[in-house]
């Protein structure tokens, strides 16, 4: 076991050397970044993690199936809601206030004696309105805090709550470039302007599978992610499909959420196959799933922090992807290599000398398909005798 792990680290060291001249805010396509796993046994709470936020002091917050989780980089703490509800949404205000939403409940947390204490805001909802469903999204918009359920939007400002109703039920509210968008089921995409919902002409092209991500894009436009219809660009006037090889992946494995990272990349979590990262032109630069480091392939939430980490709330666990790391990994999950002793890159091919023999793969995929960046093959002619551990020597790669 130790030898196999050592061999994998030899490979990732190559990636570090080759990327030495690349800027820290560039995401590489070969290998995968380091993924730190936080299993349920680590944070001692529920499996599912529905939302993520970070406060001004660097503390992470997670909307968990059993309440609110906090993580300061060393210790985990769990806080229960009044009726032990699932925390579906969490957001951090610029003043450090933490807001959460649950079934039939939303409010804020404040510190007392170094412990969080919950303060409900539901009592401020005017009659005859009642909160009878889940709060799925929370956005901090200046002095006002916006809580969204599938039926209603509640705006908390100046210690009062204002209720907004749409022409029909909502799906999700999205905040991008200080603008607020919501899909009204059966009627298309709307923009919330003041207290009014304004329909956006042409949004019917987005289909009815669900608008699950709206993020800032270049030239003051927006990139829109749908559950099963792929990605679109909205320039403020019209909607255009984004020509990207990621579309097949996102349609097939069901896009579930998205986040902008490093100001020029987009990470999308899926229901069935982990996450994918694209650049502004739609080129796929990373695909990370269970086979390459994640604990689970269902991404319930994504969050990009201010230290170039991508956090993923999973259907079972929490993962942190170190986008700022110079190390990139290739995982030999099947164990085909055995122990890797040496490696070499020659003429756009990578060679691995192992105790099982010699393996090689194109360094850059010949077909340009980055979904499977390496395709290692065993070379019996150059493998010699196929040295095993009993030889107690290091296989070498020798070139004429």
Task: Explain what the structure shows.
With 400 residues, the protein is mainly β. The chain is built from three helices and 34 strands. It has helices spanning 2-18, 40-43, 246-253, and strands at residues 32-33, 35-38, 49-54, 60-64, 67-71, 76-79, 89-92, 98-102, 105-112, 115-120, 137-141, 144-148, 153-157, 160-164, 170-176, 179-184, 188-193, 196-199, 211-216, 222-226, 231-234, 239-241, 255-261, 265-270, 275-279, 284-288, 299-304, 309-314, 317-322, 328-329, 340-346, 349-354, 357-362, 377-379. The strands form nine sheets. The protein has a four-stranded antiparallel beta sheet with strand order 2-29-28-27. A four-stranded antiparallel beta sheet has the order 3-4-5-6, with no helix packed on it. It has a four-stranded antiparallel beta sheet with strand order 7-8-9-10, with no helix packed on it. The longest helix is centred in the first third of the chain and has 17 residues, at 2-18. The radius of gyration is 24 Å and the shape is globular. Residues 1-10, 12-22 and 385-400 have low confidence and may be disordered.
What's the layout of helices and strands?
Layout: H1 2-18, E1 32-33, E2 35-38, H2 40-43, E3 49-54, E4 60-64, E5 67-71, E6 76-79, E7 89-92, E8 98-102, E9 105-112, E10 115-120, E11 137-141, E12 144-148, E13 153-157, E14 160-164, E15 170-176, E16 179-184, E17 188-193, E18 196-199, E19 211-216, E20 222-226, E21 231-234, E22 239-241, H3 246-253, E23 255-261, E24 265-270, E25 275-279, E26 284-288, E27 299-304, E28 309-314, E29 317-322, E30 328-329, E31 340-346, E32 349-354, E33 357-362, E34 377-379
Antiparallel strand pairs: 1-30, 2-29, 3-4, 4-5, 5-6, 7-8, 8-9, 9-10, 11-12, 12-13, 13-14, 15-16, 16-17, 17-18, 19-20, 20-21, 21-22, 23-24, 24-25, 25-26, 27-28, 28-29, 31-32, 32-33, 33-34
């Amino acid at each position: 076991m130790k030898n196999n792990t050592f061999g994998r680290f030899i490979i990732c060291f190559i990636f570090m050397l080759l990327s030495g001249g690349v800027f820290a805010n560039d995401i590489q396509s070969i290998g995968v970044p380091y993924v730190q796993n936080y299993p349920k046994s680590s944070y001692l709470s529920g499996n599912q993690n529905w939302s993520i936020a970070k406060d001004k002091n660097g503390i992470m917050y997670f909307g968990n199936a059993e309440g609110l989780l906090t993580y300061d980089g060393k210790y985990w703490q769990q806080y229960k809601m009044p009726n032990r509800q699932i925390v579906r949404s969490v957001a951090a205000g610029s003043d450090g206030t933490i807001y959460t939403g649950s079934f039939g409940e939303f409010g804020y947390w404040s510190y007392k004696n170094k412990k969080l204490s919950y303060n409900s805001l539901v009592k401020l909802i005017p009659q005859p309105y009642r909160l009878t469903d889940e709060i799925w999204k929370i956005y901090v918009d200046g002095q006002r805090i916006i809580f969204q359920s599938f039926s209603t939007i509640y705006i908390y400002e100046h210690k009062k709550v204002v209720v907004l109703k749409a022409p029909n039920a909502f799906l999700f509210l999205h905040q991008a470039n200080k603008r607020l968008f919501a899909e009204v089921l059966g009627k298309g995409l709307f923009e919330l302007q003041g207290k009014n919902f304004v329909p956006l002409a042409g949004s019917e092209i987005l289909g009815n599978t669900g608008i699950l991500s709206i993020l800032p894009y270049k030239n003051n436009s927006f990139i829109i992610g749908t559950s099963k219809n792929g990605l679109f660009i909205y320039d403020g006037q019209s909607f255009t499909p984004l020509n990207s090889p990621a579309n097949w992946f996102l349609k097939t494995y069901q896009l579930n959420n998205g986040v902008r990272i490093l100001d020029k990349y987009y990470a999308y979590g899926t229901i069935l196959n982990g996450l994918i990262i694209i650049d502004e032109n739609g080129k796929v630069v990373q695909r990370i799933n269970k086979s390459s480091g994640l604990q689970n392939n269902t991404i319930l939430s994504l969050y990009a922090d201010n230290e170039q980490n991508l956090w993923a709330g999973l259907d079972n666990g929490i993962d942190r992807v170190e986008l700022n790391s110079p190390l990139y990994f290739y995982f030999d999950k099947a164990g085909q290599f055995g122990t890797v002793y040496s490696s070499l890159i020659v003429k756009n091919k990578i060679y691995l000398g192992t105790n099982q023999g010699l393996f090689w793969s194109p360094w850059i995929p010949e077909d340009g398909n980055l979904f499977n960046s390496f395709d290692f093959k065993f070379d019996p002619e150059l493998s010699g005798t196929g040295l095993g551990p009993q030889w107690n020597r290091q296989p070498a790669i020798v070139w004429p």
